[in-house]
Design goal:
mainly alpha
Length: 62
């Protein structure tokens, strides 16, 4: 039974910690989502450009 007491204690602590969490507002969530999408697109374009240039360099060498 000692194991179950530990499990119950753990979940009580988790519940108490979740009550103190500050959740983001909808506006914060939207802003964060937009930032992630834009930065993903920027990084994708940059890596595509590097890939293209390196591919051209390798083709010109061989």
């Amino acid at each position: 039974m000692k194991m179950f007491d530990g499990i119950i204690h753990f979940f009580r602590e988790v519940r108490n910690e979740m009550k103190s969490v500050t959740w983001p507002t909808k506006d914060d969530l939207k802003e964060g989502t937009i930032v992630v999408i834009v930065m993903s697109a920027v990084v994708a374009l940059f890596l595509s450009g590097v890939d293209f240039l390196l591919g051209m360099a390798v083709r010109s060498v061989f």
